[in-house]
Amino acid sequence: MLKDFFLQEVENGIKAAIKANTLGQMSEYASGNLIIEKPKNPEFGDFAVNVSSLGRSAKIAPPMIASAIADKLSKENYSVSVVGGFINFKIDETLLADTVAEVLKEKENFGRGKNINKEKILLEYVSANPTGPFHIGHGRWAAMGSALANLLKFYGHDVYQEFYINDAGSQIQKLGNSLRIRIQQELGENVDFPTDEIERKNYYPGDYLIPVAKKFLEENSGVNIKDVELQTLCDFAKNEMEACQRKLLENFRVHFDKFYSELDLHKSGKVEARYKELMDKGYLYEQDGAMWFKSTQYGDDQDRVIKKADGSNTYLTADIAYHADKFDRGFDRLIDIWGADHHGYIARVKASLQALGYNPDKLEVLLGQLVNLVIDGNEVRMGKRKNMVTLDDLIEEVGVDATRYWMEMRNIDMTLDFDIELAKRSTDENPVFYVQYAHARVCSILRNAISEKLNPETGEKSPAPITEKELNDLIENFDKNLILKTTDTAKTLILKLEEFKSVIASSAQNRTVYTVCRYVQELAQEFHSFYNSNRVISEDKALMKARLALMVAIKITLKNALDILGVSAPERM
Fold this sequence. Notes:
- It is a single chain.
- Helix 20 runs antiparallel to helix 21.
- 49% of the residues lie in helices and 13% in strands.
- By secondary structure, it is of the alpha/beta class.
- Strands 7-6-5-11-12 form a 5-stranded parallel β-sheet, sandwiched between helices.
- It has 3 domains: 2-91, 2-Layer Sandwich (Gyrase A, domain 2); 125-267 and 369-424, HUPs (Rossmann fold, 3-Layer(aba) Sandwich); 431-565, Isoleucyl-tRNA Synthetase, Domain 1 (Orthogonal Bundle).
- The protein contains 21 helices and 17 strands.
């Protein structure tokens, strides 16, 4: 990466200046303390490094520090200027040619991490109860989680995606009881859900169970519903809800390597085994008939109950066993995506892992804020149980691409306002359309370049500006000198292509998906700006080839980024 190249140049210059005794009192330097950025004024250069932080060691003024280092730089393929404590770099055209050549050579691998510390990562997200359809909040976790998995894989990690099925609690009995009422209604019985607000919380009165009731009756014709055991209804309803959830996830381009059942976790004996281990290690104590975990010993703000006075486990007990099991399966790092209301839960889970001998720092929890759905400028209130706005509804309204992109384009810790009307628009105001149109426009340019032209007056066809074979040869045997024909007008566009590598690296390291969205929007903007000011297909064949090569590089980079986001890259729009 160019940024890495210039940082290394500066660090080599610092060491050379120290050796030459031109950096005041500095006698040594630890690499990795400097950052590179774009100057606010582009006239200063393409990149800049602030070396003022060396003042404490050098004991001389920042401009003198910058000048002493600049004198020792190689200045091969770039020029240097000093402004205050900044060393500004203006890159040579040959480095721009290297960037385009790299994209054309690596193609779908352009931007992938190189020589990274590869980890085996278990990424768990969504993990909704199997008691109803996904609401749009689940959609955000699904889009974010799958895009993060794509990003981490692209960067070079081994990523395993898991959905934790919360099927061991009282909610499954509520689901079974709710299905019984819906079946009775289908049979014509005069029965309904309780109207009392407190009692109603013990049921799921949403209409989504009506088709489940119909299906149950189709498969069990003539059954007397009073004779059907609750467990049978629970199992049937749960299986139907899980099937609906999995089908929707597949449609939403979300793939899980494993659906992990909490019920199976309990049946395996692992929950009780971890409880006993904490007991044997002296981390539990009894109070008011309940068993408490000494989580304050590991930084939690209070101790936590893990077995109630009635002998039943809390949610924490199963979560302790589940996260320990993740490590036992050989994963180097665990990443969970939770709702922001689970913030206080992090400390207790990490405390339990540390008590069991695992490294709590290997668990990362990304806390996600909610989604506000905006229709015609008004926010739509959502309810989990009735009249909910489901993810399925949203996808049907705006499509998979728009839903995914909008869910991903803000940082996960920010509340997202999802504007349905804007997401449906085919205008530049809609970010997903803007980016996809850039890819389609590039594809159109490349098609036109190899297409015969029809003269509307004579009806005769003229040869294509370039043959398909010539275009393929141009890509496969790219001459770096050719791109120099267009570096004067395409410099900012090529620099934006180069930036993709650093965006992928920082996004993967910081677990941020929105930065990839921001990048493709910026790349699309640079492309549209270039195209509106420059003819790609022209009579100057060398210039045309240079710009066509650049178009292919843009297409590759946009496609790589959109693949990470799980958004399609259309060739026609």
